[in-house]
């Protein structure tokens, strides 16, 4: 589970741990938070391991995958949640370094973690790949051009992966939450903006990390074994596809 020390990642790691999965809690800088997630899982009888890795660094991803394979025999489920940095800016003020840099980091991370785990999944004839995306990949919002464009590229990457790996018993799906409450991203927005986003949702509030986690867990399990290449919004009805 990449980006699992806080927010959606932590909620998903805990839920998967409760459901009997052995969880790699990946983090890049938040070691203390990652260890708390691991402690919470193990206290409830689960198995978990905190692993530091930069998902844009090939050697880090390889080492993390090797550790999981050594410890537990392989990776059956990949949840890719790690969010690479991005600029909030208008198109008028956008630089290529901002846009191109975000595109490169987003796709490099997805490519590296996918390539690391799929050979083993192919050998076993089983795998679940779940990627966190955003509705901004389909519906623009002011200031979010770098994130929305990069996630649109991720969405299409995942569809190609889903198509090619389906004959090997591997599924690949996208989960697209709206703005999520109780996450670090909220801190980049004004309180007024956050209230407005919640009020604009037909359900009248922002989505919670645990609600996103339950959707991710569905795609990680056998219940979704014949579902692949899909895009699942978790947005309280703010947009319909």
TrEMBL record:
**What are the alphabetically sorted keywords of the record?**
Oxidoreductase
* Superkingdom, taxonomy of origin: Bacteria
The membrane spanning regions, by residue number, are: none
Q: Has UniProt tagged this entry with the keyword RNA-binding?
A: no
> Cross-referenced InterPro entries, in alphabetical order?
NAD(P)-bd_dom_sf, SDR_fam
Return the Pfam families for the record.
Answer: adh_short_C2 (PF13561)
- Extract the signal peptide range: none
SUPFAM superfamilies tied to this protein: NAD(P)-binding Rossmann-fold domains
Family, according to the entry, reads as follows: Belongs to the short-chain dehydrogenases/reductases (SDR) family.
Q: From the Swiss-Prot or TrEMBL record, give the protein name.
A: SDR family oxidoreductase
Organism of this sequence: Amycolatopsis rhabdoformis
